[in-house]
What we know:
The structure holds three protein chains of three kinds. Chain B contains four helices and seven strands, in the order E-E-H-E-H-E-H-E-H-E-E. Chain B is α/β, with parallel strands linked by helices. In chain B, the strands form two sheets. A five-stranded mixed sheet of chain B has the order 1-2-3-4-5. In chain B, 36% of the residues are buried. Residues 118-140 of chain B have low confidence and may be disordered. Chain C has a five-stranded antiparallel sheet, covered by helices on one side. In chain C, a hairpin with a 3-residue loop joins strand 4 and strand 5. In chain C, 38% of the residues are buried. Chains in contact: A-B, A-C, B-C.
Amino acid sequence: MTDHSKGNPKQFVGEQQSDTESLEFYQFLANGLTDLAIYMLSPSGIVQTWNLGAQSIKQYTAREVLGKNFAMFYTKSDVDRNLPTAELEQAASAGKYEGAGWRVRKDGSQVWVDIVIAPLRDKDGQLKGFVKVARDASERKRAEEVIEQQKRDLIELSTPVMHLWQGILALPIVGTLDSTRSRIVTERLLQGLTSSGCTVAILDISGVPAVDTVVAQHLMKTIGAARLMGAECIISGIRPEIAQTMVHLGIDLSKVKTKSSMARALEEAMTIVGVRMVSDVQKAGIRG
Amino acid sequence: MTPDRIPILKMGEFLLVTIQGELHDSLASALQRELTQKVANTGARGVLMDISGLEMVDSFMGRMISTIASMTRLLDAETVVVGMQPAVAITLIEMGLTLPGVSTAMDVEKGMELLRGRRLDLFNEESNGYVKTDGETVGI
Amino acid sequence: MAMLRQTEKLSVFEENDLSSTRNKVRSYAREAGLGLVDETKLITAASELTRNMLLYAGGGCVFIEQVRSDGAIGIRITFEDNGPGIADLDLAMSDGYTSAQGLGLGLPGSRRLVDEFSINSEIGRGTKVVVTKWKK
Lengths: 288, 140, 136
């Protein structure tokens, strides 16, 4: 009699007990655990038992679900992708399936659950069905999502995109330029160009503590992308130490416009934009 | 959503081509043929290729754009690609796909400015409110 | 956590299949929440690799699946053909390579667009490319 895998609830159904005794014990256990959904499925996923925990999480009473396929709890897109079947197959072949996902309650609302599906086999190893255990993890999921959003907000707040003058965008970058930050800088810069219609962007890096080859690469890619879109970039705020490091590292910035200060970069930007600035100054009635 | 033909509009001395959706092999060849034909017929000085509706540009599309630029240049018309979406620009750079011989601009208007090669001198006090355009003095 | 595999198979034999493949990849990428930039990168890589199959092998199969590992979610795409195979893989994977027709295989470019890239090719038997892009 081979044991099929670890964590297999077949342990509840010991060889010495009769089927009736095992079922009673199982029901006792299942009903005692009111915040865990524990129920059994046929090999094809038909709900065969239900417990109070399942009722509280899914909102359905036993009568409403017994005899029905458990796919009814899944979202439409999961059903379209055959997720319920795949999870059962995975459980059967690997001995256990652990996962998490959105399920649909009776009232249509969604709940995020942590789940474990384990196969139930008889003495001969034949698949008799599955037991599924699920726990409501919505709160944790919501908390995680809030933290993720806060992280994103923080990065966005520390990467302001300023529309300085008609046609000129400025992005003062403060802090280390790691991969995540670089990605956000690039996306905000390019999106800013599209939304504002600016053709010049000043990337000020006086607030970036260190520039190595990786950071330089990120900057070059950002500038390249802006150029492909039809905009020009000027890097300003290159401190003497940064200049030295970059040359020592062999970083080639010959094709990139660089200025030591934002003021100089602005001068350069205005020269590039030139046209519009003149006509706007005149429209505003300013005479020099 | 793929059109059978890509329309080519005449905008003054330039031609405007707006590419949306996928570009099949046959459609791409047809575009190259029609465009070069039209450039020759109209004597257009430039071609504006609006790709603001393209969510993806792969190497095939990139080659097509470069090819069109080469062809029109032989006919004395510069091609400017306008409206490239940020995600597309980032992807092309990451791929290492350059568009050799192709100028770019943020939108059609700026593309036309580029083609006209217009440069206005900065406001000059001495010229009493006049702005020089291509050597010609124009009163405002 | 176990890897969940439900693979969608697409057969590619003509140009129209290119756009259906792209659309499928797009919907998988959207569902996984990859984000616009990564979605575009994945679709572009898929377009390159699918086009390769069409051009050099006359067609093939594309398998798309959502994969999970340690809480991370990603999209894995396999491109499999029974074409002539690639004679010099190192050359094909090097930057600046162009084949006889003047068309590059786009392999090194595609590799840069994804997080994981593997290629196996046997002359006379075919080629198999597997790429994965994880949600960041």
